[in-house]
Amino acid sequence: MSDSPILERAQRFLSVLRHCQVLGMSVHSAKPDGLILRLPYSPQIVGNPETGVIHGGAITTLMDTTCGISTVCVLPEFEICPTLDLRIDYMHPAEPHKDVFGFAECYRVTPNVIFTRGYAYQDDPSQPIAHVVGAFMRMGKSAQSGKGVTASIQGGGQ
């Protein structure tokens, strides 16, 4: 186990998302000031076989997931927070045969909505592939059943 409860919670959250397992995503780091996920390059996520460029949908999935899981960095306990709104501005295509990293932070937490922002990059965070802003609805502890996915993320389930 990790020394960081935030890192452990982020890893558990990611581990229950089947589409992220299929994409091979992993938690690179998770701290109170933000989260970084890694999307490994693979032929299955290539959008253009002639160039080897990663499909934009894979980058969108990375960034939606990174923003969503970044909520565990700021909330004292796990809450279900589905995506309300997500905007991604693509700066340039990802370079073929290189992993992509997604960084996200929560910059405002209200009783009902968590606001996030971040970027996708490869070698250099100062040269982003894309910028993202997102809003996530707080459903609160009352929305949780205590079983299944929620219990697994909290560490007490299946």
TrEMBL record:
Keyword Hydrolase: yes
Record-annotated Thioesterase domain positions: 52-126
Entry superkingdom: Bacteria
Annotated protein name in UniProt: Hotdog fold thioesterase
NCBIfam families assigned to the protein according to its UniProt record, in alphabetical order: unchar_dom_1
Keywords linked to the UniProt accession: Hydrolase
Alphabetical list of CDD domains matching this protein: PaaI_thioesterase
GO molecular function terms listed in the Swiss-Prot or TrEMBL record: 1,4-dihydroxy-2-naphthoyl-CoA thioesterase activity
Keyword Lipid biosynthesis: no
SUPFAM superfamilies, per database record: Thioesterase/thiol ester dehydrase-isomerase
Taxonomy of the source species: Bacteria, Pseudomonadati, Pseudomonadota, Gammaproteobacteria, Pseudomonadales
GO cellular component: cytosol
InterPro entries assigned to the protein according to its UniProt record, in alphabetical order: HotDog_dom_sf, PAAI_dom, Thioestr_dom
Pfam name, any one: 4HBT
